[in-house]
């Protein structure tokens, strides 16, 4: 049984959603504000967090930020009426795995939860990667060079890891979007280029590392002077 931590301050909506999820076999713990949600998460780690943004005491963005300080693996799904592009982008930058806009159909929410909890049950990479002169730590979500450490978002870590694991190969854009953004139309193109640009800046202190845009296809990482 999938354990869902559901945070929503609109009680009438929360009752409907929680009842629907429980009818489909989920175990639901409901909290009405962000502060109680963080306490509940620390007390009993759920399989997934379904999180509103506009809430009393602590908003959803702050909740996600607090959780990602100690846990990078538990899926976070934002469920919000805040549908501006900048809100969606901010949610993903803070480590969200998905973003569903209100109003929504309960069937869509269930499918999204099932997809995310299937992914989390898969083996997670738990290792460090030596990328040129950098050390990527996928557990701590850090990128270190010469004693200087940069903290990365969940998707930045996963995107960098994917590019490195397929070094000298082209990683298709569509493959990246399907893997990390569930084909969300907000992330089909320009926003992905922004993520790539951020990663290039992180890697700028080792000139051997290149991430090349293969126009119309995808991206390829190369590291000059290295061999397998």
UniProtKB/TrEMBL annotation:
InterPro entries: CheY-like_superfamily, OmpR/PhoB-type_DNA-bd, Sig_transdc_resp-reg_receiver, WalR-like, WH-like_DNA-bd_sf. The keyword Nucleotidyltransferase does not apply. Residues 126-223 form the OmpR/PhoB-type domain. PROSITE patterns: OMPR_PHOB, RESPONSE_REGULATORY. Keywords: DNA-binding, Phosphoprotein, Two-component regulatory system. Residues 126-223 bind DNA. Pfam families: Response_reg (PF00072), Trans_reg_C (PF00486). The keyword DNA damage does not apply. Residues 3-117 form the Response regulatory domain. The modification 4-aspartylphosphate is found at residue 52. This is Response regulator transcription factor. The lineage of its organism: Bacteria, Pseudomonadati, Bacteroidota, Sphingobacteriia, Sphingobacteriales.
């Amino acid at each position: 049984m999938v354990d869902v931590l559901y945070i929503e301050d609109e009680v009438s909506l929360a009752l409907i959603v929680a009842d629907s999820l429980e009818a489909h076999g989920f175990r639901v713990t409901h909290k009405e504000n962000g502060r109680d949600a963080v306490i509940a998460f620390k007390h009993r780690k759920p399989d997934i967090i379904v999180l509103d943004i506009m809430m009393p005491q602590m908003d959803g963005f702050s909740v996600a930020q607090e959780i990602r300080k100690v846990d990078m693996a538990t899926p976070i799904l934002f469920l919000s009426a805040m549908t501006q592009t900048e809100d969606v982008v901010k949610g993903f930058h803070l480590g969200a795995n998905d973003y569903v806009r209100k109003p929504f159909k309960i069937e869509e929410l269930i499918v999204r939860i099932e997809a995310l909890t299937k992914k989390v049950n898969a083996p997670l990479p738990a290792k460090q990667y030596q990328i040129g002169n950098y050390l990527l730590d996928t557990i701590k979500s850090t990128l270190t060079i010469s004693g200087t450490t940069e903290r990365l978002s969940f998707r930045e870590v996963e995107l960098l890891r994917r590019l490195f694991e397929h070094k000298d190969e082209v990683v298709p854009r569509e493959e990246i979007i399907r893997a990390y953004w569930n084909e969300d139309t907000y992330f089909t193109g320009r926003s992905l280029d922004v993520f790539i640009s951020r990663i290039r800046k992180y890697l700028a202190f080792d000139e051997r590392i290149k991430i090349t845009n293969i126009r119309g296809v995808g991206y390829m990482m190369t590291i000059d002077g290295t061999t397998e």
